[in-house]
Amino acid sequence: MDRAALEKALGGTVFAGRLHHFTTIGSTNTRALEQARLGAPHGSYYLADEQTAGRGRSNHPWHSASGDGLYLSALLRLPLSAQQLVWMPLLAGLVAHNAIAAVTSLHPDIRWPNDLLIRDRKTGGILVEALAEQDGLRPVVMGVGINLHQTSFPPGLATPATSLDRETGTRISRQQLLVALLQSLHRELLPLASESARSAALAAIPARIAACSSWIQGRQVAVHGPHACTGTTLGLDERGYLRVQTADGPVTITTGGLRTLEN
Predict the structure, then answer these.
(1) I need a surface site. Which of 41, 68, 106, 235 has the fewest CB within 10 A?
(2) Which residues lie below 8 Å from residue 2, measured CB to CB, with a gap of 6+?
(3) What CATH number has the domain spanning 3-209?
(4) Is a pLDDT exceeding 70 seen at residue 55?
(5) Angle value at C-alpha 208, between 96 and 166, nearest 5 degrees
């Protein structure tokens, strides 16, 4: 990385001067949570060249080979209630979607609640974790993993994978994507810091997600997890949960994963 260029690009954002870079680490999210408990400031971010214990939602492993991807966790201290935390994985999806689009002109599909797909192949994942309030603010760790340079993937993945290099036919700059992602996140954080703007910003997320997701409305899906069912997606409710029309009527999915329903 060109640290001087990175800091210049992030000037004026909450992330300026707050990089923690690791050649190898177990998990950037785990490190960020540890540092949050120790009082690390808002805007601290943790970047790894390689993760040996990268993880996604429900502790699913995230393959994090050295130099092949963007492995990032940002520590945010936000004035959010427990109910408002539901929006953070969706907001992270919008941040990552916008960053990838800005750097590559690709427009990844957001698969509720936390996956980024290109041509139904997974290219990114999101893991948001939070701690109890500290001094009136809630520490939130927003982890993002994006496949950049991989040409092959481990066998047996639940969803076939791809990388930005494979999809564009060019080598995508990790630093450029990092800058785009943190700049996008900074913009999204601004209204959340304002009590007068926060509610409207969160209320706008369902429509924004629907505009860049083929999974939210009218998709036949199989839901995996505690609310396992099959049906057609009906959109997000006012809390950010997914509604699905099943044979027995509409249900609300608060957690779990989606797959295309096999005919």
Answers:
(1) 41
(2) 175
(3) 3.30.930.10
(4) no
(5) 35
Burial class (CB in 10 A: 0-12, 13-18, 19+), 229: middle
Name which of 183, 194, 239 is nearest 78 in CA terms. Answer: 194
Pair 251, 229: CB distance under 8 Å = yes
The domain spans of the chain are 3-209, 216-260
Structure tokens at 6: 């990175």
In the chain, the amino acid numbered 222 is: A
CATH 2.40.50.140 fits 216-260, yes or no: no
DSSP letters spanning 232-263: EEEEE-TTSPEEEEETTEEEEE-S-EEEEPP-
Asked, colleague to colleague, whether 3-209 and 216-260 share their fold, the answer is no
Nearest CA to 79 among 204, 238, 198, 183?
A: 198
Residues across the chain? 263
DSSP string, 41-60: PTT-EEEEEEESS-B-GGG-
Q: What is the pLDDT of residues 171-220, one digit of tens each?
A: 999 999 999 999 999 999 999 999 899 999 999 999 999 999 999 999 99
Q: State what percent of residues in the chain have pLDDT above 70.
A: 95
**Which pLDDT does position 51 carry in this prediction?**
87
Count Cβ atoms below 10 Å from residue 225 Cβ, excluding itself: 14
Q: Do residues 70 and 181 lie in contact, with contact meaning Cβ atoms separated by under 8 Å?
A: yes
Residue % of the chain over a pLDDT of 90: 80
